[in-house]
């Protein structure tokens, strides 16, 4: 049976994984409509497509795959009620988000003349991303506080209350966006909780924009000039609050998870789900398509101070300041153009995002006598070679 697949044009390796399963139609994810699905058996999306009754009613879609970690754009109850198979890509780009946070912390440290180990970092949500971040930071010697009402400390390490977490130097958000129940995360960080943070705390949001009340954050930063925000995600994307962007220490267009490795892993995971749903054998594996990294090795030839070596290695793998600079200049240009330019520019920055690889793909050569440096770089996830 040939499966007709409608796929977001921004999902990589669609032909490589799916061409021998059926026919493929690529459409723009942001503007996908019910008309695009008239002949579809399977739908593959990213986070910018709202998958709900108004998209699916009247279609013959039997499987929906989202090549993303987040699932807040998918009405899973509707899928279940209509017997439509579903697969997301849990953890696919967790490593890329952790790399983003490490690069962000290295910039924060530079601006404050601090080392990684001078900070207490709070992690809100200890799932795939939060737990990997916790492991990396703790092994690097950073003090970590974590909160997660749905997790057992036996599985994810010690947990504290949200009140305690708000006292950390850095608060990094890693929850899904949820709107129901006692622990709903929409506006989890609101004016009152911002008030309870240290005046010079740094809030990092790389999960979903609406987990933070963006207006309250902007006002808080106006009143507390020492407070820093590092923002990858924005309330009402692709709308962007330019005022908030201008106040943020680092601003990026929802690309924390955009490593090649993470995106391709996402495609492989939905491919496996689609094969299972349609009873097709799994013939393709990510390793067939993942290229070798361009930068082969970073070499430290002599004793380098720990913080400097960490910063150099992290930024050789991922330099957040480049993404920040590209976004600011594009958005400022767009703000002088007509209606809709900011939205279009936000999406364009994401569509044309340059190639980036995960930290574990970068080899780092360290003199064999520098044991502490070797250990710390391994803890940060690098492929360390003693020489
Ligand atoms: N910016 C990006 O490019 C990017 C990339 C990947 C993921 N994300 C986002 O990051 C989120 C986290 O990713 P993940 O893979 O770790 O998801 P996950 O589902 O594995 O983990 C989320 C964790 O948050 C916890 N949680 C839920 N409500 C909470 C609350 N009120 N307080 C504290 N913890 C709470 C859950 O129990 C869970 O452990 C995703 O949902 C996605 O929206 C963004
Ligand atoms: O949820 C995720 O996996 C990430 O937010 C992902 O990077 C979103 O990317 P998009 O689907 O919007 O391209």
UniProtKB/TrEMBL annotation:
NAD(+) binds at residues 148, 175, 232, 257. The keyword Cytoplasm applies. Keywords: Cytoplasm, NAD, Oxidoreductase, Pyridoxine biosynthesis. It catalyses: 4-phospho-D-erythronate + NAD(+) = (R)-3-hydroxy-2-oxo-4-phosphooxybutanoate + NADH + H(+). This is Erythronate-4-phosphate dehydrogenase. Its main location: cytoplasm. Homodimer. Residues 289-369 form the Erythronate-4-phosphate dehydrogenase dimerisation domain. Belongs to the D-isomer specific 2-hydroxyacid dehydrogenase family. PdxB subfamily. Its EC number is 1.1.1.290. The active site is at 208, 237, 254 (proton donor). It holds the Pfam family 2-Hacid_dh_C. Substrate binds at residues 47, 68, 258. Catalyzes the oxidation of erythronate-4-phosphate to 3-hydroxy-2-oxo-4-phosphonooxybutanoate. The lineage of its organism: Bacteria, Pseudomonadati, Pseudomonadota, Gammaproteobacteria, Oceanospirillales. InterPro entries: D-isomer_DH_CS, D-isomer_DH_NAD-bd, Erythronate-4-P_DHase, Erythronate-4-P_DHase_dimer, NAD(P)-bd_dom_sf, PdxB_dimer_sf. NCBIfam families: PRK00257.1. It is found in: Cytoplasm.
């Amino acid at each position: 049976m040939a499966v007709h697949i409608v796929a977001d044009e921004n999902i990589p390796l669609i032909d490589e994984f799916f061409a021998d399963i059926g026919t493929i139609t690529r459409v723009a994810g942001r503007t996908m409509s019910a008309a695009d699905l008239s002949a579809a058996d399977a739908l593959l999306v990213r986070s910018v497509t709202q998958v709900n009754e108004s998209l699916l009613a009247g279609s013959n879609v039997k499987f929906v795959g989202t090549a993303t970690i987040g699932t807040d754009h998918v009405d899973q109850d509707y899928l279940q009620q209509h017997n439509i198979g579903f697969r997301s890509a849990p953890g696919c780009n967790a490593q890329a988000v952790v790399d983003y946070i490490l690069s962000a912390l290295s910039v924060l440290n530079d601006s404050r003349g601090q080392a990684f180990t001078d900070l207490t970092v709070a992690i809100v949500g200890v799932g795939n991303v939060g737990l990997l971040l916790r492991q990396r930071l703790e092994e690097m010697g950073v003090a970590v506080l974590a909160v997660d009402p749905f997790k057992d400390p036996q599985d994810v390490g010690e947990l504290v209350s949200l009140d305690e977490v708000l006292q950390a130097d850095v608060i990094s958000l890693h929850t899904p966006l949820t709107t129901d129940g006692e622990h709903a995360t929409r506006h989890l960080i609101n004016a009152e909780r911002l008030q309870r943070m240290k005046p010079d705390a740094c809030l990092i949001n790389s999960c979903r924009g609406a987990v933070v009340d963006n207006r309250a954050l902007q006002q808080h930063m106006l009143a507390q000039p020492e407070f820093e925000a590092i923002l990858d995600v924005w309330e009402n994307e692709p709308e962007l609050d330019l005022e908030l962007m201008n106040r943020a220490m680092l601003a990026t267009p929802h690309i924390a998870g955009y490593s090649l490795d993470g995106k391709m892993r996402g495609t492989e995971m939905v491919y496996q789900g689609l094969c299972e749903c349609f009873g097709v054998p799994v013939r393709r594996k990510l390793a067939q398509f993942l290229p070798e990294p361009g930068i082969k090795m970073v070499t430290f030839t002599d004793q380098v101070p720990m913080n400097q070596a960490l910063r150099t290695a992290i930024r050789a793998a991922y330099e957040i300041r480049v993404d920040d600079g590209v976004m600011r200049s594009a958005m400022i240009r767009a703000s002088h153009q007509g209606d809709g330019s900011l939205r279009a520019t936000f999406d364009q920055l994401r569509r044309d995002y340059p190639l980036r690889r995960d930290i574990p793909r970068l080899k780092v050569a360290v003199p064999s006598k520098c044991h502490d440096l070797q250990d710390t770089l391994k803890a940060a996830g690098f492929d360390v070679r003693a020489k």
